[in-house]
Design goal:
The chain is an alpha+beta fold. It has one domain. It is built from three helices and eight strands. The strands form three sheets. The protein has a four-stranded mixed beta sheet, with no helix packed on it. The chain has a two-stranded antiparallel ribbon with strand order 1-2. The longest helix is centred in the C-terminal third of the chain and has 16 residues. The chain starts with 9 loop residues before the first strand and ends in a 7-residue tail after the last strand. The mean pLDDT is 82.
């Protein structure tokens, strides 16, 4: 799915270091606008079609979210992202989505009005501040933190990442100081699914399409 041919369309990031978690994320951000209908649909084929032990690959957690405001925790649907969509092995999902832009009235909820603000970056910086270093396993760090060099630092990061995935939004806000944006993209979807009984060269498939031609991503 994110092989060399399409590498520039995907961004890699780590959100969880737990071996049982789903913290290695690949985020797709289109570089152009796509029409509705089959020509504008995203087709993602994952795995190689071989039988995989359940304990080594349970499946994939999929989120629809804005470019700057995301964290893989269902408690953060308050920033507009969806809850996780769990795509299992030998399953085919077709997701039809719509995106709604909402602006909160000042004072209705503590939020950040800066259009350049990123909640993802805010939470990431908090994690690295706690550890005193950053992971540079996939990308070069540009936020001023040195690369982590020992297992103690990595364990510190893993502990904080796990915490942020498991607590409520009010706890995240109070702990990190990171708040939701005042203007947010709210993602809603409907899901159709079926089991893959036929022979394929992949293990799971995911099809994403807009609800109407007026939706732009």
């Amino acid at each position: 799915m994110a092989g060399p041919l399409f590498e520039k369309l995907w961004h890699r990031r780590l959100f969880d270091l737990d071996v049982w978690g789903s913290g290695h994320c690949l985020t797709y951000t289109p570089h152009q606008k796509y029409p509705s209908g089959r020509q504008g649909q995203l087709y993602a084929y994952m795995g190689n079609g071989e039988k995989t032990h359940y304990l080594s690959l349970k499946g994939y957690d999929i989120y629809l979210h804005s470019k700057k405001h995301f964290w893989p925790a269902d408690s953060l649907t308050t920033n507009g992202q969806t809850e996780h969509i769990e795509l299992g092995q030998h399953k085919s999902f077709t997701v039809t989505f719509e995106k709604i832009v909402e602006t909160r009235f000042p004072g209705s909820l503590q939020c950040n009005e800066d259009v350049e603000y990123s909640m993802t970056a805010c939470l990431t910086n908090y994690i690295y501040e706690q550890a005193g270093c950053a992971l540079d396993w996939f990308t070069n760090q540009t936020n001023g933190f040195p690369a982590c060099t020992n297992i103690s630092q990595v364990k510190n990061i893993a502990k904080t990442m796990f915490l942020l995935k498991s607590v409520s939004y009010p706890e995240i806000k109070d702990t990190t100081g990171c708040v939701v944006p005042c203007t947010r993209e709210v993602w809603k979807y409907t899901l159709e699914q079926e089991r893959i009984y036929w022979k394929t060269n992949w293990t799971s498939e995911f099809i994403l399409k807009a609800k109407s031609g007026r939706i732009e991503v």
